[in-house]
What does this fold into?
Amino acid sequence: MKIAIVQFPGSNCDHDCKHAIGQILGAKVQYVWHRSDKLTGFDAVVIPGGFSYGDYLRPGSIARFSPVMKEVARFVTKGGVVLGICNGFQILTEAGILPGALMRNKSLKFVCKDTWLKVGTTECFLTSDVEMGKVLRIPIAHMEGRYIVDDYTLEQLNNENRVIFRYCDKKGGIAEDANPNGSIENIAGIISEGRNVVGMMPHPERVCEESLGGTDGVLLLTSMLEATKIY
Amino acid sequence: MMLDTQLIEQHGLTMEEFNLAKEILGKEPNLVELGIFSVMWSEHCSYKSSRKHLSKLPTEGPQVIQGPGENAGVVDIGNGLAIVFKMESHNHPSYIEPYEGAATGVGGILRDIFTMGARPMASLNSLRFGSMDHAKTKYLLDGVVAGIAGYGNCMGVPTIGGEMFFHPSFNGNCLVNVFNLGLVKKDRIFLGKAEGIGNPVMYVGSKTGRDGIHGATMASEEFDEDSEERRPTVQVGDPFTEKRLLEACLELFKTDYVVGIQDMGAAGLTSSSIEMAGRAGTGIEMDLGKVPKRETGMTPYEVMLSESQERMLLVCRKGTESAVKEIFDKWELNAEVVGKVTNGGMVTIKDDGEIVANLPAAELSESAPKYTRTYSEPENLAERQSFNINKVSEPRNLTKTLLKLVSSPNLCSREWVYKQFDHQVMSNTIVMPGSDAAVIRIKNTDMAVAMSLDCNSRYCYLDPYIGGMQAVAEATRNVACSGAKPIAITDCLNFGSPERADVMWGFIETIEGITKACKALGTPVVSGNVSFYNQTDDQAIFPTPTIGAVGVLEDHNKLVGQYFQSPGDVIILLGEIEPEIGGSEYMSFVHNVEQGIIPKVNLQREATLQKTMIDLADKKLVSSIHDISDGGLAVCLCECLFTTKSNDQVGFKVKLKSDFRDDITLFSETQSSAVISINKSYVDLVMGLAKANALPATIIGEVTTSEISFEINGDKKIICKADELVSAWRGALPSWM
It folds into this structure.
């Protein structure tokens, strides 16, 4: 199996994703340049974090026009697994592949810190190996991470078990205090209606080694590798 | 046109300098040439007041691959790898326009590193602001931090640490010193040399605009009430372009096309072309008509003096031009052949074929004016250093005093700052911001690199010689606290006007102190920067020679942190507490006294302490190490609790014996001492090791759960819940901002 990591000008977590998935977890990974119009032979696609096109205009708003995004959309339609992390999540919402939008943090400042995440569903390629309700420690690093969505879609997300992570406290309590950016209902990550596209603001690739401060990212990325074998 | 006196003056040149320029050219310079002399001979670019003194600094060692004089210093770390590092100031622009000033400071230092062929791995910063209640302080702090974050985060280079200090002497001049360290294969280092007659000279990166003209000259003058009007001399940064420039250059460096490369920083196209030719003993012929420009109608004068960011000048092998262009095309960046390397040593600037400037490259830098500025001890030095502790009454409630100190601007948590910096991108950060040293691991090896920036501006005001020594001692000590061996330093020397004798005296004293400490501790200076004219309306800043120390840990599994780990661990003081309260944070913040004799620096003791800490780490005998600095032993112990990790809160119980006043015992900032915590079973081993090294070691207490307590000579002096202490420390900065 092989995982594609899409590179836009300004992507900066591409190397980290390759290191975590390729070197730590031992999967085959390959970079795909944003101008590429081919996305064949891959079992999953990762859209990494960073500042594609410098976040100019709005994060993700220019990247979504890159040729590769047409291929990503096609890949999604065919049921392919796509994980968007941070800027990747922003690009997926801008492209209309995931609902909602990521707005400027409530503090109006960039926030880099550890957050606690409560797993909201295990019917997801990223959490299928993780216990329901488990609390994970995964860092965030973003300026625009405040998830917003219209009431109707929010109800859908909730009813269909599509909120995969919510920011919580250490013990799993979903409180405003634990919300680092003002996201609606503490939402940190969601899955598409077809359950094959995930967008999340926290960075699992940054916590895959004990020496870097934790290994909760391994749980998620391993789930993805296991799950994509089945697809 | 004839140049009049006023025009020459506006260019910051004295009549003697102008005459020297005439002599070098053998004729009267035209306006473009005058502009070039003006920036090349500005204090910022020529180091004309400092060069003579800087030559005293030790710059050599078996580990040094490249010392001062290039874009950055290079040090061998083994395994075929080298680290490239440097620190730069961006003080003047940051005061005028904090966001862009700080942002372009980061952009500039990053280019200095990757122009050498290295991938930038980690940034640090050292910041100085005026007092918290000064009208401008919050605005500057907010803007500077946002600027560093805005640029660094977008570049995907983690900002992993630094230091910050508030004092009224910085009310009119903030300091923004930015440091970066990169990693390169030892045999893939690139230098700024225009070699090979006939080789093409290429301009790559962003287009040239009218921004930043005379930025270097602006940074070579003191401020007055009209300084705000100089906002147009501050450049505007575009980190997205720089990120592409970084990736394109690193892709280019994998090929064998490049002969030499230099970034266009201060004085832009002027200094890059002249310095590259000067270093190689060649000349360059360049046509400004071929330079990619952002706007129409730019004059040769403007093109040569623009400090537009995100640009590089490179010399490649003849015939590889189109291959180079292809790489930059991929990253959607300009790459144009603008000239060629010539012999004869002249830099010849043409504008669409017509010669507009013609200057000898080597002479321009070699014959630059060098000044021996007059210097003399400040008149009030004796008064500064005199102080009688008996005139200051001892606080009755030392618990309250400690809580007040840990929540003071200079000692409280910096989380508000570093939370805005991406400190984890690149997946190498193994010690997060907030500790003595920041540490990154080197992938595919067992090694880690530790780094720390330090300087106590108040010490340097009271005694610049000892202050300079102390800055080196503390920076290297912080590196050693993590278990790493310090191997080299970089410096960023921030002072007032060199034309003032007392400022110059402080500068010279500081250099002597740094020199002595570097020799004793085996850490040569491999790169550096001088920033003079940090003064407003004749009010100079406290002298601030910021030192950046770098060290190597052979096995990153042996890394030691600053924080207490387990209740029951024994706490040991390495070194001794002496009555050295002069110039301390305690005296300044609690008693508003900034006088006295600052703590002495015994370099032999310092070397012994550092060696012992490295030994303890190597033998895996310690749970934590933290040195004593601002705030003394009491604050040092508290800082061992201030982890950002969400472990269960620990505390400590400490019993001290002392002949001094309690406040002196608790808050004296004695140098070359540290607090360690160890598992009980290692006590004999550790005490034995200290003894063998002739380092005093005293068991002073143990790590407990949830409470802190100090007992002196049998009496309880401080008792407090650890939670209360931590929230006082953590809440201070956010509550001001």
Observations:
- The interface with chain B takes residues 9-10, 12-13, 15-16, 19-20, 49-51, 53-56, 109-114, 137, 139, 141, 143, 170, 203, 205-206, 208-209, 211-213 of chain A (CB under 8 Å).
- The CA atoms of residues 78 and 168 of chain A lie 34 Å apart.
- The mean pLDDT of chain A is 96.
